[in-house]
Design goal:
By secondary structure, the chain is of the alpha/beta class. It has helices spanning 21-33, 51-60, 84-98, 137-152, 159-179, 184-188, 192-204, and strands spanning 9-13, 37-39, 64-68, 107-112, 130-132.
Length: 209
Amino acid sequence: MPEASFDNSVFINCPFDKDYEPVLQAMLFCAVYLGFCPRIATESSDSAENRLSKIRRLIENSKYSIHDLSRCQATRKGEHFRLNMPFELGVDYGCRQYYGQGRDAKKLLILEEERYRYQAAISDLAGCDIQAHGGDFQEAIRQVRNWFVSEAGIAADGASRIVGFYVGFQEWYYERQMAAGFSEDDIRDYPTSELLTAMTLWVAEGRPV
């Protein structure tokens, strides 16, 4: 991973379940492709570090944040909806409002799987510009790409081209891991930090396909 600075760090607050993985991995790739450094709670697994302290540190040190509220609604009877994502959004909003030291320059993107569904759970967000990705990794790339262009003032390839490179990266990564002796189960179970390292290496090697 490139050295993280406040100006190039992107805190990503999202679900970590298997169904969401395609969206998460696509967003990570898009951020790396555009020259940013994604920061997520699972990037390290030091059991001695308090999770909330880690999240606070990542938020304080990231100019950009992506918050996905797609799991604010339970999917089946008896299941609790998840409050971690809206809680971390609140911490980030508070950081921007009250922390000082330039944190008022922080930029936040709020995503949901379904547009307007969040209003039943967090009515205080009514009127905010929240984008929907429909659970589609390609649409997630489009939303993230467009947001960076708008809020970071960067020039960027079109979303369709980024999606094409993402497919190429996946093929490159699969072949590389198989050649290194990984099984398909191993590849599916890779740690996030390893995936991010591979994305950065792929960019550094000239985006091989």
